[in-house]
Amino acid sequence: MKLCICFLVVLGLTAPLLRAEQKELVVGMEMLYPPFEMLDASGQPAGVSVDMARAMGQYLNRPVRFENIPFDGLIPSLKTGKIDVVISSLTVTEDRKKSIDFSDPYLKMGLAILANKKSDIQSINDVDKPGHNVAVKKGTTGDIYAIQHFKKARMLVLNDESACAIEVAQGKANCFIYDQLSVFQNWKKYQDTTRAILQPFQQEEWAMGVQKGKDDLRQQINSFIKHFKETGGFEQLGAKYFTENKKAFEELGIPFYF
Fold first, then answer.
1. Residue 53 in this model has a pLDDT that exceeds 70
2. What separation in angstroms does the CA of 35 have from each of 128, 156, 187, 215?
């Protein structure tokens, strides 16, 4: 009888721990940014960040649930506890650090330019001129850069990346300020009417966002990122999603993402 009682006591003490380990990890991302965050043909989450989040769930022994949230709603959703972590190609900025905490960075990226083929733009120094229309996606670091640096050009602030690229392809905007990968991919779509200026004019780091004060979760995420890197996880993602992009960047002498 004593053995049974002891067993029940131990089980009672460990049950909360087991439940905690199995607690759902809610990941927020905007699934409009292939190949990082997107929906597949059947409407299910897919892409680099989705694969990484699932690997992290396995590492932390927690089931993962995804929430598809507009980019400018991700940080508010994190602050209110609707989600546990943001994994959405999120750039680390000083302003964002004021409202959320960041994991260790897992990827380096730079801002680049998708220019209309007929535009006189050759570098970032040519962008801020009277008569120039510059497309940016709302809430992104391209948008932030434009607000901070452009005084003469007219800003076209749109909610969708593809809309920004179309504005450039159709000649309604002289250029689109966005990350190197997206610029490269949009140039591939519209090679007849656009040019990709891929040399970055501002370097950035991407990391996962967590709620202020959630230091235990942040440390667990950092442990996963270190493990994932050491075990070749990022190399596997690169081989799966970026073979063509990596070759093109190497030919241009531009460091690749991971």
1. yes
2. 30, 25, 15, 30
| R_g of the chain, CA atoms, integer Å | 21
Q: Which fold has domain 19-106+207-252?
A: D-Maltodextrin-Binding Protein; domain 2 (3.40.190)
Q: Taking residues 33-52, what's their average pLDDT? A: 95
Where do the domains of the chain lie? 19-106+207-252, 109-203
The pLDDT mean for the chain works out to 90
pLDDT higher than 60, residue 195: yes
For domain 109-203, which architecture applies? 3-Layer(aba) Sandwich (3.40)
pLDDT recorded at residue 258: 63
Q: How far are the Cα atoms of 75, 79, 91, 157, 184 from residue 96, in angstroms, in the given order?
A: 9, 12, 9, 20, 26
Q: Which of 159, 105, 108, 102 is nearest to 135 (CA)?
A: 159
Q: For the whole model, what pTM was predicted?
A: 0.75
- Residue 240, pLDDT above cutoff 70: yes
pLDDT at 160: 92
Write a three-state SS string for the chain: CHHHHHHHHHHHHHHHHHHHHCCCEEEEECCCECCCEEECCCCCEECHHHHHHHHHHHHHCCCEEEEECCHHHHHHHHHCCCCCEECCCCECCHHHHCCCEECCCCEEEEEEEEEECCCCCCCHHHCCCCCCEEEEECCCHHHHHHHHHCCCCEEEEECCHHHHHHHHHCCCCCEEEEEHHHHHHHHHHCCCCEEEEEEEEEEEEECCEECCCCHHHHHHHHHHHHHHHHCCHHHHHHHHHCHHHHHHHHHHCCCCCC
